[in-house]
Amino acid sequence: MKAKEKANDQPVDVNEVLLVGAIEDRPNLKYMANGTAVARFILVTVVDAWEDGKQRTSRIRHRIVVFGKDAERCNDEMNAENRVKVRGRIARKFKGEVQGKRMYDTEIVGNSWRGS
After folding, report:
1. pLDDT tens-digit profile of 31-80?
2. In CATH, what number is assigned to the domain containing residue 58?
3. What are the backbone angles phi and psi of residue 104, rounded to the nearest 5°?
4. In Å, how far are 3, 33, 111, 115 from 20, measured between CA atoms?
5. pTM of the predicted structure, to 2 decimals
6. Is residue 94 part of a domain?
7. Is 35 among the domain residues?
8. DSSP label at 76?
């Protein structure tokens, strides 16, 4: 996929993520004060790499957050160990300060998902 270009032929930044993996646990569904549903869950992906002639497998845990009707659907349809495809964007969330240093969490804000 080629990113659209600005008038001066500079590429436009793209923040888009597509992950396929297994759900670690059932989504945690909560509602914000305005009534919007929010589902949070961990999606686990597996990466195989070769190091010094040996295969090494790493499991990577991605924090996913989904809002609205999709969040309610997550709660209804996802079970632990389900395989799903999540499309979204990377976001940073401010956690607080520790010894004067600002701390952030990175999560994927899902804008669509489906079981695989």
Report:
1. 999 999 999 999 999 988 888 888 888 899 999 999 999 999 988 888 77
2. 2.40.50.140
3. -130, 150
4. 22, 31, 14, 9
5. 0.78
6. yes
7. yes
8. H
